[in-house]
Amino acid sequence: MQEKKIHVALLFGGNSSEHDVSKRSAHNIYDAMDKTKYDVSLFMFTKDGILLGHQASQRIFNGEDEDQVVADEYPKIDMSNPLAPIMALGEIQDVDIFYPVIHGNLGEDGTVQGLFKLLKKPYIGSGILASAASFDKDMTKRILNQAGVRNTKYLLVTPENKDEMTWAKISAELGDTVFIKPANQGSSVGIHKATDAASYESGLADAFNYDFKILVEQAVVKPQEIEISILGNEAPRASKLGAVRVPESDAFYDYQNKFVDASGVVFELPVVLSDELTKEITDMALRAYVALGMKGLSRIDFLVDQDGVPYLSEPNTLPGFTNISLYPQMWEVSGISYSDLIDEIIQYGFAEYKRNQQIKYDFEELGTEHVGEKKYNQTN
């Protein structure tokens, strides 16, 4: 007798700058899923953050114009209903596990993880806190610093303190080359390199379009970009390392050469580094994964300076699975096929859900409330 297939709800899209990246990742994950093991329902979050049902999502998945499909579907949705953004989930009663492939907002910031928890359903990847902390670059650095994982020095700029965060102060503390980054954005959106007061002010002004917390980071001299894939829950393991080499004419590995035109980028898989440096980066990545409380999967990026010193750049709790993305490629060169990788990620999702089900919550009736005497002191 054939074993019952696992029903996976594959969620993609989202109201972030990485909307189209998510669609590409979802396609690759869907294609890699063994259809003898899985039934897959598709649900796409629109650019407005409204979840479309399987049929409409399938139309977009199959190549129909997204704007037209959305225009067809929106009149059918009662937007006065406070649950309108997620009403489409009512289509499925028997989902076994949620597989979010939503990069950036909604997907990596803990939002959909909270939804899955309310629905009492398993899901792949990190939980609410780990997702939120790993998405917020400021919180990530605070945790990494507490855990002793080397990362770049930075200052935090907010609307409240920006007037005192002058270029003179920034350059005195961080040097004359810095990178400006919104704390809660992905894929290099809103990131600028600054080398003087003018580029600092213009970069900061643009970054504030994307967040109210802006990191200004010390630049790493002549950095080599190294990435590593992590897989697992309580006992995570690391892949071999990969390198990303961008053209010298590019200031950094930005959205354009990550997802739009990577023709000038060289990917080295696996990258050949010294045994000492390979071990140091691997150990740093695993320590960061545990310190941040990540589960299931993560791609962790590093910058290695001209003296061979590695700095953890950022973790990604739902890394890309596009044709360019290194997360699955680093596992392939480490001996795990694309299809087997998807299987493992799903099984880790089930395992984490089962583990959390063991946590007990005791409720005690309060009964009649007894209040002690209140004494008010004169405060004139």
TrEMBL record:
Cofactor binding note: Binds 2 magnesium or manganese ions per subunit.
Residues annotated as binding Mg(2+) 2: 314, 316
Cofactors required: Mn(2+); Mg(2+)
Binding of Mg(2+) 1, residues: 301, 314
Job of this protein: Cell wall formation.
Domain of life assignment: Bacteria
Location of the active site: 18, 187, 325
Major location (coarse): cytoplasm
Annotated pathway: Cell wall biogenesis; peptidoglycan biosynthesis
A GO molecular-function descriptor: ATP binding
EC numbers: 6.3.2.4
Family per record: Belongs to the D-alanine--D-alanine ligase family.
Residue ranges annotated for the ATP-grasp domain, each copy included: 141-347
Biological processes, Gene Ontology terms: cell wall organization; peptidoglycan biosynthetic process; regulation of cell shape
Main enzyme class: ligase
PROSITE patterns to which the protein is assigned, alphabetical: ATP_GRASP, DALA_DALA_LIGASE_1, DALA_DALA_LIGASE_2
GO CC annotation, single: cytosol
Location(s) in or outside the cell: Cytoplasm
InterPro entries per record: ATP-grasp, ATP_grasp_subdomain_1, D-Ala_lig_Van_CS, D_ala_D_ala, Dala_Dala_lig_C, Dala_Dala_lig_N, PreATP-grasp_dom_sf
Keywords associated with the record: ATP-binding, Cell shape, Cell wall biogenesis/degradation, Cytoplasm, Ligase, Magnesium, Manganese, Metal-binding, Nucleotide-binding, Peptidoglycan synthesis
Name of the protein described by the UniProt record: D-alanine--D-alanine ligase
Catalyzed reactions: 2 D-alanine + ATP = D-alanyl-D-alanine + ADP + phosphate + H(+)
